Amino acid sequence: MSRRSDNRGRHDITVAGLGVAGSTLAYQASRHGFKVAGYDVAPIYRKACGDVVSVRGETWRIVKETGSMLTGVKKFSIRVGGAEVAYIDVGGPVWVVVDKSKLVNTLRGLAASLGASIFRGKLSRLDNVEGIAVDARGPYSRGLEDAVITFRVIAECVWEPDTALIDFNVKNRGFYWVFPADADGRLVNLGAGFEKVKDGGLLRRLTLAYYRRVCDARRILDERGAPIQVHAPINLHSGKVLRVGEAGGLLNRTSGEGNRHAMLSSLALVEALRASSDLNEIVEDYSRRVSGLVNEVNVSRALLKTITLIGRGRGEELLVNAPRTFWVKWLKSELTWDSLARIVAGSPSGSLKALKSLLVASLRNSKTSISGLPPSTL
Ligand SMILES: Cc1cc2nc3c(=O)[nH]c(=O)nc-3n(C[C@H](O)[C@H](O)[C@H](O)COP(=O)(O)OP(=O)(O)OC[C@H]3O[C@@H](n4cnc5c(N)ncnc54)[C@H](O)[C@@H]3O)c2cc1C
After folding, report:
1. pLDDT tens per residue, range 21-60
2. What's the helix, strand, coil split of the chain in %, to 5?
3. Does residue 254 share a domain with residue 337?
4. Which domain holds residue 324?
5. Which ligand 1 atom is at minimum distance from the Cα of 141?
6. What is the C-alpha to C-alpha distance for residues 329 and 52, in angstroms, rounded to an integer?
7. Domain match, 104 and 122 both
8. Is residue 21 domain-shared with residue 117, that is, in the same domain?
9. Which atom of ligand 1 sits closest to the CA of residue 248?
10. Are residues 216 and 80 in the same domain?
11. Which of 261, 282, 273 is nearest to 30 (CA)?
């Protein structure tokens, strides 16, 4: 007997938000026979994004099943204040650029084809729904007062389809990005987000000026902005409401990467729901399954805090002198306490040595969990 008929009324799931996390959850839970009701204010997902998904674990399966891949990225130009500090060819694609609207809308369709009920509508109260309640409202799950605003264009530009550029601006605390947006080398996804630029009009002007600097072409096909919750705490559940993706605070604070976190946390929650129907056990199992992601997020949070604490000059120095291994790990989303400790210990750079005390200091001053951090090696 299928789970759907087995557990009718017992394990039903209501999901608020059908972005990357919510649509992944609706699809995966429906595949496993759960009865899912999903709500989203936007009938068609079009949120601005860099559209990069790092290829790790199950993310590749989801990208393939949705037929949403546009191109793979393996070469990276890392810049600080416009000057290249590292050029890295990692050999094979570690990022795929996707048509994110297609990815999300296909997942919604797949979920519906498996019996999920997909509704257009706002769902803000979840504590009173029956069954399992999942908050997947992304950055909108909490107030946007301290969210960072981002802006991006999809625009014409002659650009290598396997190459990405990231240009840090320490003064404004953020970066510009230029990612390929097709496989033909004709379109880019170019954007920016800065903690210190809170005026949307100014951010748009800065982004368009950057576009003019790096691209000869001038035709913009789409432009839009979106918030990103760089400062939100990690919060995997409150009361009976479980949280996935950015709603749970699962977002890399230095890169803005959240798509993989959204997918993997949703898959993890479905596994926890399959294993038990007891809320406490589900929470415990889910937390355990996402502990690797949480670790990654905590590392990125400490790094961001460190850069903020040390100020512009030393921050730039730190990024300029960061060894290649740091950037490779950063690009591959492999920065853990252990790998960071090894990088710092093995680096002769004075500014990286300084990172040791700063990281420890920022951790002491923050609520970041330091479990797993080996202070003796840092
Ligand atoms: C400009 C920009 C560039 C980015 N680039 C990248 C990148 O290249 N790679 C990467 O990995 N990450 C990137 N991110 C982060 C990534 O987009 C997010 O972390 C990711 O989309 C989070 O997925 P999510 O499902 O948690 O939230 P979202 O994808 O934001 O989905 C939330 C959904 O909830 C819906 N919703 C909101 N309120 C309600 C409500 N009350 N009721 C019902 N529905 C509601 C929204 O309509 C939306 O569909 C970027 C973010 C921005 C803003």
Report:
1. 999 999 999 999 999 999 999 999 999 999 999 998 899 9
2. 40, 25, 35
3. no
4. 295-365
5. 38
6. 16
7. yes
8. yes
9. 26
10. yes
11. 273
The rounded distance, in Å, linking the Cα atoms of 359 and 309 is 10
* Domain tally, the chain: 3
How many angstroms separate the alpha carbon of residue 2 from the centre of ligand 1?
32
Ligand 1 centroid–CA 294 distance in Å is: 18
Helix (H, G, I), strand (E, B) or coil at 33: coil
Residue 76 has pLDDT above 70, yes or no: yes
Q: How far apart are CA 296 and CA 302, in angstroms?
A: 10
**CA 252 to ligand 1 center in whole angstroms:** 13
Kindly report, residue by residue over 142-163, the tens digit of the pLDDT. 999 999 999 999 999 999 999 9
| Percent with pLDDT over 70 in the chain | 89
Query: Do residues 77 and 205 both lie within one domain?
Result: yes
CA of 228 to the centre of ligand 1 (A): 8
Both 132 and 276 in one domain: the answer is yes
Nearest Cα to Cα of residue 23 among 108, 102, 84, 80: 108
The reply to whether the predicted model has a pTM over 0.85 is yes
- Which residue CA neighbors atom 19 of ligand 1 most closely? 258
Shared domain for 136 and 195, answered yes or no, is: no
- Which residues are near ligand 1 (CB < 6 Å)? 16-22, 39-42, 45, 47-52, 122-124, 136-140, 150, 152, 191, 226, 228, 245-247, 251, 256-260, 262
Residue 362 pLDDT > 80:
no
- Position 85, amino acid: V
Answer with the residue of higher pLDDT: 11 or 253: 253
Q: Whose CA is nearest to atom 35 of ligand 1?
A: 17
Could you read off the pLDDT of 224-273 as tens digits, one per residue?
Answer: 999 999 999 999 999 999 999 999 999 999 999 999 999 999 999 999 99
SS3 call for 368: coil
- The residue whose CA is least distant from atom 17 of ligand 1 is 49
Distance 20 CA to ligand 1 centre (A): 7
Q: Region 335-339: what's the mean pLDDT?
A: 85
Helix, strand, or coil (residue 168): strand
Q: Do 178 and 315 sit in the same domain of this protein?
A: no
